[in-house]
């Protein structure tokens, strides 16, 4: 009887928010399937996907709600961020207006979502302003591909110079993130830069006592309801709450 106890998976509800066309769905696709689609259709309502992230002391299973960015779907957002343990608020580093929209989402989350929610501010489309070589990760964490994809995870890039199309400087976004207590990343869903790091750092930041681990799959597999298939789409949920401010 050695310590061969199976590690328990901790389920974490995570929501993606941000203006339309900033690349939310592309970030999720890169994280879940290690893929990129140039012709992604706009999300209608929300899409639901799952992915596991293995840390040294736990496995986090993200239940990801990828919400639509169009204004007409804004009123549905509280259904998806209610009781979420984490949120990824995405903006496009080549569109300054998208950062303003991201700030509005952060304010709404801090007022109405779970008061302990971990928020990551992510500036997407880094590939448009810098050349970033891809290298494997070195932080000891692993994303477990549910469909056994090969793990080719790019390393964070040091983007220091503004390219032609950059409209949001690193300093501006990073200063705002620090003031509001957010995690901050610049990423590229297209190239893969920093995408896994976003979710890994969120997984590390979530306090264990705020989420309850599920028993190992062997003990529970047979009793799982078949309402939300992995990688599927589902538009169900409920309503909003209260919170702090930035």
From TrEMBL:
Protein keywords? Nucleotide-binding
Q: Which stretches are tagged as biased composition: Low complexity?
A: 216-229
Q: What CDD domains does its record include?
A: Rab5_related
Q: Does the keyword Repressor apply?
A: no
| Molecular function per GO | GTP binding; GTPase activity
Q: Does the keyword Nucleotide-binding apply?
A: yes
Domain of life, per lineage: Eukaryota
Region of interest: Disordered: 129-167, 216-246
What's the protein called, per UniProt? Rab family protein
